[in-house]
Amino acid sequence: MSLALLPTDWLIWAVVVAIVFWVMKIRSQPILLENWQKVFMQPAAMVSGVVLLCFVSIGLLDSIRWMDTNRSGENALSVLDRVLDPLAKARERRYSAPLAYLSFRKESIERDGQSVRDYPRLKFGGAHLHDPTNEWLDDIAARSVMALAKGLLIVFLLGLSLRWILRKSPYPWRWAFASFSLLLLVAVWAAELSAAYHVLGTDRTGNSVLWIALKSIRTALVIGVLTTLVVLPLALGLGVMAGYFRGWIDEVIQYVYTLLSSIPDVLLIAATVLLLQVSIDNHPELFATALERSDARLLFLCLILGVTAFTGLCRLVRGEAMKLRELEYIQAARAFGVSSFGIITRHIVPNLMHIVLISVVMQFSGFVLAEAVLSYVGVGVDPKTPSFGVMINTARAELAATPVVWWTLGTAFVFMLMLVLSANLFSDAVRDAFDPRARLRQ
Fold first, then answer.
1. Which domains, from first to last, does the chain contain?
2. What does the alpha-carbon distance between residue 436 and residue 442 come to, in Å, rounded to a whole number?
3. pLDDT band at 131 (very low <50, low <70, confident <90, very high)
4. Distance between CA atoms of 156 and 177, rounded to whole angstroms?
């Protein structure tokens, strides 16, 4: 058994390590610590933070992968893959509705020596039922009651162990505990019923939609986080240089981001992604498995998304840097002989970080939605990579079918709504805490 992390896995874990060190640094800076305390004093931030933490935990479990040494040439499996292995193996022939025991469409089957058109039994969903017509509803109810009892027991034990924090802490931990309890009850219910049914149905290839949705979380997080890492140095570096130095440097940087913003993003992304796909197809020897090829396309999509999306933040940073360079303390530092590099790193950038932080947090949800749009038009991630955009693209043909296959689109919609809404609510809390003008209005 050997560790087999993909390039995006290494980058994700590097971001996690950087965040840990940043949190340790914040504890030694009273002003930053006070601002972050203001963020988590808001109930909306606590609830959205719990939801985001659950998504991040699933994504991190899908970013730890290893491969057995005696199975070379196969895709490395992650922790999430091994946990969800029963769901991945419980494949049907084609579509099945949520919690169903019959196929969604009629097929020609043999019955009493004759070929008839009817709904066949599923291989996995409800296979344990001897008389599904009479036993199905009772079995669903019994498993739901059992899941509710297990979930409430876990919530009760957690509440007893955390009662001191819930009572004494000034933070609204009750809201966080309530949201976590609700998510826990839903997760226990889904796990209990997944042992015998497809909770969210299956797609056209018979794969569990719940399995696809959970695997798509990592793709959304990679798109949001890595694209932000591309945007941040470009926007901050070029914006500060243009606003502080002015002159021909400002003219060149303005020309660059004006030119990029004039090109339609979809066309530029489509052209570069297609060129990359042609290069991958012409050089298959560079990648040992299909998973590595899909990961290379995902990483390149993050790069090109970042290059096309940094212009807005760059304009904002440039304007703020132009305003800051004219303030008295900046002019005093320049009069005392402080170098331009020292002024930028000690005075300009620290006073811009609240704007950068707010913009970065708010852009995260935009990048997640951008991946869905790009995959919908066929220029996003690899079609074999689980993602919400691929699920929506697949559902486009399903909505035209009769009867309508609605659960694939519905699952992608619910998961994306939870992720994007949580990110937006958390970004609003960050803006209220770090933006002086927002605090002044309050």
1. 213-441 (1.10.3720.10)
2. 10
3. confident
4. 11
